[in-house]
Structure formats: C-alpha cells, structure tokens
Design brief:
The complex is a heterodimer. Helix content of chain A is 23%, strand content 36%. By secondary structure, chain A is an alpha/beta fold. Chain A has two domains: 237 residues, Rossmann fold, CATH 3.40.50; 123 residues, abc- transporter (atp binding component) like domain (Coagulation Factor XIII, Chain A, domain 1, Distorted Sandwich), CATH 2.70.50.60. In chain A, the strands form four sheets. In chain A, strands 5-6-7-3-8-9 form a six-stranded mixed beta sheet, sandwiched between helices. In chain A, strands 10, 12, 14, 15, 17 and 18 form a six-stranded mixed beta sheet that branches. In chain A, helix 3 packs across helix 5 and helix 7 runs antiparallel to helix 8. Chain B has a two-stranded antiparallel ribbon with strand order 1-2. In chain B, helix 5 runs antiparallel to helix 6 and helix 6 runs parallel beside helix 11. The chains are: A alpha/beta, B mainly alpha. Chains A and B meet through strand 1, helix 1, strand 2, strand 4 and helix 3 of A and helix 1 and helix 4 of B.
C-alpha cells in the first residue's frame, strides 16, 4: 500500500456542553468563572489511515462523530489530543457557496471563494473558464449572486471547490446537488479525481451511495471507531448490526369508512415466524388479519411496498389477481405470498388497503402499516432498491478474469 | 480490518496536538502565501460591498466625517469656544482644521476597532465551513477601511494646504508611517476583542460605552494644553488629591494611546511640525505591543473559536 493521504493518530475531540450557557459578563461574574460545562466526547481515541487515491467513506448514525472527524481533518476543528497528518492540499466541501457575498458578481465570488479554498489568483485566472463552464451559469457570471437561483448558487460553489484540485477532498453529503444532469457531471468529476490518484473523503447517510462510491470506509459509533475496511464489507456489517427495523411506532396513517379493516399485519418467514428482518431472496408471506363485523360484499385487498423515501416499488391487489371474495363477515386473514424477495438491502414500508370492487371507495387504507428490513442475501447485486437476479457474461473476445474475492485494485496493480 | 492504532513514521509521538503536514516548513510558507491572498480578496470584497445598494455610494464616506466635523465645530468651536492655539509653524487658526487633524484618525481607529471586533462573529458561517487562518478576518476588514481613511486624509491635506500653505505635503511620508502604525494598533486591539466577542457578546456593549469615554478622554475636540495647564491648575487649586498625591493629569494623558496617535497627526497636519522622538517611540511601542498581544490572544484562543461561536 502506498503512503496514506491522511493519518489520524489517536485523535480525541470533546465539546463543551454548557449546563447553563452564559454569554454575558454578568452571569460570568456572578458565577466567578465561566459557566459549568460537561465534556461531550465526539471522538475518542480514533486512529485510522486513509490511503492515497480512491474514495473513503465515513459511516455512522447521527452523532457518531463522522462530521466532527471530517471537520478535524479539514482543520476547522482542532482535536484535544492526537495528531492528524495530511499530505498535500486539503479542501473541504461542507456547505457549498458558504463564502459567497450576495452583492458581488459570480466572477468576483469565484476569486474570493477560490482564495479562501486555497487557490492563487493566477490559478483562478487559468481555471475561470472551466469553473464557469462546469457550473453552467454562462452569462450570469457577471451578475450579483443574489440574483442566482439556489441551483446555480450551489453549482457554482461545487464547481469552485472541485476546481481547487485538492489532493484530499472532504465532502459532506454533496451529491445531492443540482439536477440529474449536474449530478452526473459531479460523479464523472469524482471518477476523474480518483483516476488522478487523488483522495476523496465523504460522509454520507445513503448506504447504497456509499457502497457504489467508496472503496474503503470507516464506521464510527459514539465517537469510537468500530471498524475500517473495504466499503462493501463495512456497509454490510453496518446494516446487519443494531439496525433492526421495528414496527412503525406511530402506526402510520390510516383512513377509510371502516366497514372492514386490516387490524394486524404479519410478515411471515419460511418457518411461519412473524419477522421484520428478511434477506434478499427469502420467502415472505404477508398475512392480513381483517375484521368486518357487519359484513362486506366483494372487498378488494391490496398491499404495496415503498422505500423510506416514498418511492412506490410494487403493489398487488386481489382484483387484479382474480381473488375477490363474494362476502366477508367477522374476522379472518388472507395471505399474500412472495416466493423470493427481490429487494436489495435496505428498509422498506408496507401499505395495506381494503377497497370496494370498483376501487372507488376506501374501506380501510393504512399507510406504513409495517416496516421491514432487508439484509444481504442471495442474489447479491450492487445498488438500487430491487434485485433482478441478473448476471454478467460473455466478454467478447474472451479474457481472463480476476479470481473472485480478490481486491480488484490490488489485482490490477500487480 | 485493523482497528488497532497505527503508528506511522510521519506522525510525532502522541499527546501533542500540533500537526505536521508533509514538510512542515513548506506548509507554513504555503499558509502564509494563502493568508496573503485571502486577506487581499476579503479586503477587496469589503471595499466593493461597503456602499453597495446605496444611492450615494462612496460619497457616504465623505458625508459621515463632514457631518461629524460640522456638528462638533458648531458646538465646541462656536458655542463653547474651546480655546485652541494657532498652528505653530503654519498660517492657520481654524477650529475645523484643528479638529479634523485629530478627528479623522480617531474616527478611523474607533471604526476599525469596532468592525474588527465583530469580524469573527459576523463571519461565523464561513468560519464553521472552511479552514483558513482566522486572523485574516479582523485584518482584512480593517485594511478595507484604510482606503477610506487614506482618501479622507488626502482631502484633509488638500484643504489644509489651501488654507495654510502646501508645505504640509512635506510631512506626507511621516503621515503615511503614522497611518500604518495606527492601523496596526487597531488591528492588534481588534484581534483581542474579536476573540473576547466570541466568548462574551457583552463586549460590544461595553466597547460602545468605552469608545465614548475614550473619545472625550482624548484631546480631540480640545487641545492637550487645556488639560495640562488650565484643568491641572484648577485641580491643584481645589486641592483634589488621590492617596495624598496631586493628580498627574499630564502623565495620565500620556498613557492614552489614542492621545499619542491623534497628537502626532495634529502635530504634522495642523502644526506643520515633525513629531518629536517621544511621539515616534510611543506610537511605535503602542502599535507593536497591541499587535503582539493580539497575536498571543489569537494563538491561544483561535483554535476553539469555531466551537464557541
């Protein structure tokens, strides 16, 4: 392995949490000293090396210390103890366009922001055109940035930061910038970055993004390092542990006239156990327990699966399946059988519904009736919410393949 | 998948919180170069945006001192008839010019200290998102004000020249040196206060009161001789003492850095005289001391500023 780009050696960082914050002199004098505070340890004895080249992810829950870590590497915060050694120029993209002055033109802001990020005037002169091009703001460059749309604002901020061409780029949730087209450009730029042997350190909540974007990752939990290694392994480990989804506690959202209701949902595994955790490729039976005290004619049951962000992935109702009962009275249940769950690892939500035969009247709609988690299973594919059971074949002309399981990067280097 | 702490040859033995980057010396040089660029760009930003969206624009930088001068001249020159001496070497006996020679440097100094003091808090958005040497903020905001200061001094010199003879232009090199010294003094004070401001927001209120006190305690609207002769006489006549000693007003005034600076400017611009060796030494000493204290305070506290903002 080459020399690391960043060496974090035994770093601890604490913040003062004031019991009763006093920013006034009166309070200070009355208390004879500063306010009482407790130390909150955002990082505790963390040591890790970020290798040169490639993308390194920092993973963890909110408050795990990953942003603090990033800010320490960026030198915005100074650790209490321990050292951080970085090689080459470091640029942080914590908030895009944070140094912009609204009254100055785009061009003036490029010079201002560029110098804050570490570029010399000559360097900016050379790159000005590329920065403007990349941001795609064209004629607006000589307008004050207060007239920019929010999209233009962040695009310009991103463009400046990326053109600093740092040896180490620190990014906090940056890929959520601009429209699809711009995001695509950003990804290309990141790839270019990596090919140039530069290092990207990224903090992200998107596990899928993490898997596809990062080569290596570190997992932080409450300020301590849990593990560091190949990004795919770390992400899997992270999703496996301590992340078990629970039944929706707020009960989701429910409406309907109520002549018939789905009062309970069970998600049964192959052994008939009610589970909230499955693996890709597992069998899953959705059992809907209904009550219809007064009796209902030809009710249509339905179920659908959504991602947490609300993307509708799938639904199925009994009318399309030709499985409509003539009349239901009292209580009972109906099963929906999924032979092999075609979902990638992640957390999903199940909605249930009971409507009339014309699908015009809602008896009972239950949004987020149950939440379940999918963990790594088989087949194993790379990203997105769904699994297609796909496979790669037929290099033409045929070539030798790297043996499975070996690190591709080291293999190609040999 | 090693979680064990890795000791790399480049990292110094633990415990130290100093960081070494690559070759330490080259990074320091790079840092300095970078700070220079940032200071320049931030200064330009301040200059360009100071009067944006005002109809009169840069004219305001003349209107403000003119109005202050007019008010003080009418009240103290006309109504209260402050006794002031004619110019020692020039052909001048005009209260407005006597006043302006000290008031314009004072206005610059007090404005610079106030703006510099607020610079960290005002730019908190930038401080928490990007690393750059923190001292550039108070420094650049004050540097941007030196432009207005220089223009005002230029206008003042022309007016004084028209009224009392253009020999005053002989002093321009010395005036420039004192302008540098008063700027350095303001930067040093502002650096200390900007840190204090982060920890205690009371600082701004205390300072606005203190600035008023400081203004009247400095011989700007009255000559120093009024205090050393007239007032001292009256104090002594009434037998006012502190701890049994006569009150040494001249010594007290001698300890006021603003009196030293404004006095030096008045010596040159109103009296057409070279500052004494004492004036040179005192002003230089104040500037150096203020910058040193500012740097020390900054070194000690600036690392934690981001957390306290």
């Amino acid at each position: 392995m080459s020399t690391p780009a960043v060496v974090v050696d035994d770093v601890s960082k604490s913040f003062r949490v004031y019991r009763d914050r006093n920013q006034s002199l009166k309070a200070t004098i009355l208390r004879r000293g500063r306010a009482t505070y407790e130390d909150f340890w955002a990082l505790r004895d963390v040591s890790l090396e970020i290798p040169e080249g490639g993308t390194f992810g920092l993973l963890g829950h909110n408050g795990s210390g990953k942003s603090t870590m990033l800010k320490c590497i960026a030198r915005i915060l100074q650790p209490n103890t321990g050292t951080i050694t970085t090689r080459g120029r470091v640029a942080a993209m914590l908030e895009l366009g944070s140094g912009f002055h609204p009254e100055l033109t785009g061009r003036e802001n490029i010079y201002l922001n560029g110098s804050i990020l570490g570029m010399s005037k000559r360097e900016i002169d050379l790159k000005l055109e590329a920065i403007v091009d990349f941001a795609g703001i064209g004629a607006f460059i000589d307008q004050p940035v207060k007239n920019y749309s929010s999209g233009m604002y962040v695009r310009l901020g991103f463009s400046i930061a990326i053109h600093v061409e740092p040896d180490v780029l620190l990014a906090d949730e940056i890929l959520a910038v601009g429209d699809m087209q711009f995001q695509e450009k950003c990804r290309e730029k990141f790839a270019e970055f990596r090919n140039d042997g530069r290092t990207v350190v990224v903090v992200s909540h998107g596990l899928g993004e993490m898997r596809s974007l990062c080569d290596r990752a570190a997992w932080l939990d409450h300020g301590t390092l849990v593990d560091v290694g190949k990004a795919t392994d770390i992400v899997d480990e992270y999703t496996e542990t301590g992340h078990a989804a629970q039944e929706v506690t707020d009960g989701g959202m429910r409406w309907g006239s109520g002549e018939i209701q789905v009062e309970r949902v069970e998600l049964l595994d192959a052994h008939g156990q009610d589970q909230r955790t499955f693996r890709t490729g597992d069998a899953m039976t959705v059992r809907l327990h209904y009550v219809a005290p007064g009796g209902v004619d030809t009710p249509v049951f339905g179920a659908s699966i959504h991602t947490l962000e609300g993307t509708h992935l799938w639904s199925h109702h009994t009318r399309d399946a030709g499985f409509v009962p003539a009349r239901l009275q009292g209580s009972g249940s109906v099963d929906l059988v999924v032979p092999a769950l075609p979902l990638q690892p992640g957390v999903f939500e199940l909605n249930t519904s009971v409507v009339d035969e014309q699908i015009t009247h809602d008896y009972d709609q239950h949004r987020r009736a149950a939440r379940f988690e999918v963990m790594v299973g088989a087949p194993r594919e790379s990203g997105g919410p769904i699994v297609l059971g796909s496979r790669w074949e037929n290099f033409s002309p045929p070539v030798a393949l790297v043996p499975a399981g070996q690190d591709v990067r080291t293999a190609t280097a040999e | 998948m090693a979680v064990s702490p890795t000791t790399s040859p480049t990292s110094p033995p633990g415990g130290s919180s100093r960081r070494l980057a690559g070759g330490a010396s080259s990074s320091v040089r790079e840092d300095r170069q970078r700070s220079f660029e940032i200071v320049r760009n931030l200064t330009v930003r301040e200059v360009r945006t100071q009067f944006k969206r005002t109809a009169l624009g840069r004219l305001w930088s003349f209107i403000n001192p003119l109005v202050t001068l007019a008010i003080l001249s009418v009240v103290f020159g006309l109504f209260l008839r402050v006794p002031f001496q004619p110019s020692r070497n020039g052909d001048l006996h005009v209260f407005v010019l006597f006043l302006a020679a000290a008031l314009i440097p004072w206005n610059f100094m007090s404005g610079a200290i106030t703006a510099g003091m607020n610079s960290l808090v005002v730019n908190s958005g930038l401080l928490t998102k990007v690393y750059f040497p923190r001292f550039v903020l108070p420094m650049s905001v004050i540097l941007s004000m030196t432009l207005t200061f220089a223009i005002e001094m230029g206008v003042l010199l022309v007016v004084v020249g028209l009224a009392g003879g253009f020999e005053v232009l002989l002093f321009v090199p010395a005036i420039a040196v004192f302008m540098v010294l008063i700027s350095a003094f303001a930067i040093g004070i502002a650096m200390s206060l900007s840190i204090a401001m982060v920890y205690f927001r009371d600082t701004q209120h205390i300072m606005s009161l203190f600035m008023q006190l400081w203004f009247y305690a400095t011989p700007i609207i009255y000559p120093l001789t009024l205090i050393t002769d007239d007032v001292q006489q009256r104090v002594d006549d009434r037998g006012w003492t502190v701890l049994g000693q006569a009150i040494p007003l001249e010594l007290i005034y001698g300890l006021n850095p603003a009196a030293a600076f404004t006095g030096a400017f008045r010596t040159m611009i109103y009296d057409y005289a070279w500052p004494t060796a004492g004036q040179w030494v005192i002003c230089l000493a104040w500037a150096v001391a203020s910058v040193l204290v500012g740097l020390l305070v900054f070194r000690k506290f600036s690392a934690r500023v981001v957390e306290e903002l």
